[in-house]
Amino acid sequence: MHAPRSRLLVIYTGGTLGMVETPQGLSPGGSFEPRLRDALNTLPPARRASLPDFDFMATPSAIDSSSATPADWQALAALIDEHQQAYTGIIILHGTDTLSWTASSLAFQLQGIDKPVVVTGAMRPLEAEDSDALANVEGALRFATQPALQEVALYFAGRLLRGVRTRKWQTQAEDAFISPNYPLLGELVDGAPVLYPGRGLVDRQRGTQRFELPDYRTLGPSPVARISLWPGMTADQLAKMLLDDAIGGALLEVWGGGNIADDPALIEVLAQARGEGKLIAAISQCPQGRIEIGAYAAGQGLMEAEVLSGDDMTPEATMTKLIHLLAQPLSDADRRQHFLTSLVGER
Ligand code: ASN
């Protein structure tokens, strides 16, 4: 990497954005920096001239984000931590499949970040006809120049979303991401970045960055289970997933506003897992809205088993938060209290 002339850093991790056709289908391509710079030079002169310059860096291997793991989230946060002081904004180029997971995890690891970290990707490769890649990179660069943006945000198809609130919602369409329970942070209006007042974390910053960069690898490759209820699920089935020794916590996707079948055996398994010290949190299977455990009699079992309410968090935010809390030297009571607290506007 060159000495920082510009104050923006672009980190390329892979994804469709940089992919090329191979006999096996789309696969991460190399030499992405010159390809990206060439593509940016094709923008109309006035737009090109108003774009900020940037330094470029790539992770050791470009991957399809469907292979990303918590170890990759950790390595990326470490890379940002190592270099961010020299820059006023960071852009992460990443595959879309697990972009919301990485954005959520980065938000928890980079708590208190006082500059923009803008993640983006594309639905079609940079060199493909009708690609959305260049427009997404351009928008991400423009938002990364905004000092009032002080959090991990996801830019896609003209819209800026809080990273830890996002979900990938479309398999093909260009506006692939939603933020089901939080409004847009901003939009590109006539090519200019507009941040909506009062929605960002800037007012919540306490003046110092307080990154938390625990070693996720100590937890094993898959420390948190994701369990979605289905009608007729038995206690045995739940026990097989939840009582596995490798599992330190679980996301339970329950019914509607916070309900579970009236089956004492199911609740007993949850209570047993809780007794073993596992951190268990519930959110709804409904994509929109919050849960309120105990509002219905059908939610009492969750209360008895001390299942934590994930409120209106996304599955991605809930799981990355559970992993983040489990990886830290906290007491069970502190983990539970942190889980119930909004750390980075995730709930
Ligand atoms: N499979 C790709 C990835 O997540 C999808 C994309 O980037 N559009 O890396």
Spatial ordering of strands, largest sheet:
4-1-5-6-7-8-11-12
> End-to-end span in angstroms?
38 Å
Assign the CATH topology of the largest domain.
Rossmann fold
Query: For the report, how would you describe the main beta sheet?
Result: 8 strands, mixed
Mean pLDDT: 95
* Estimated helix fraction: 25-40%
CATH architecture of the largest domain: 3-Layer(aba) Sandwich
Tell me the number of strands.
16
Work out the helix count: 10
Organism: Onishia taeanensis
Protein name: L-asparaginase
GO molecular function, one term: asparaginase activity
Domain Asparaginase/glutaminase C-terminal: 224-339
Q: How would you describe this protein?
A:
- This is L-asparaginase.
- Substrate binds at residues 65, 96-97.
- Residues 224-339 form the Asparaginase/glutaminase C-terminal domain.
- GO terms for molecular function: asparaginase activity.
- It comes from Onishia taeanensis.
- With 347 residues, this protein is of the alpha/beta class.
- It has 2 domains: 7-205, Rossmann fold, CATH 3.40.50; 221-340, Rossmann fold, CATH 3.40.50.
- 28% of the residues lie in helices and 21% in strands.
- The protein is built from 10 helices and 16 strands.
- It has helices at residues 32-40, 45-49, 70-83, 99-109, 133-144, 235-242, 264-275, 300-304, 315-326, 332-340; strands spanning 8-14, 19-22, 25-28, 55-63, 89-93, 117-120, 152-156, 159-162, 167-168, 177-178, 186-189, 192-195, 224-228, 249-254, 279-284, 308-309.
- Strands 4-1-5-6-7-8-11-12 form an 8-stranded mixed sheet, with helices on both faces. Strands 13-14-15-16 form a 4-stranded parallel sheet, sandwiched between helices.
- Helix 3 crosses helix 4.
- The longest helix has 14 residues, at 70-83.
- It is elongated, with a radius of gyration of 21 Å.
- Mean pLDDT is 95; it is low at 1-6.
- The structure holds asparagine.
- Asparagine (ASN) binds next to loops.
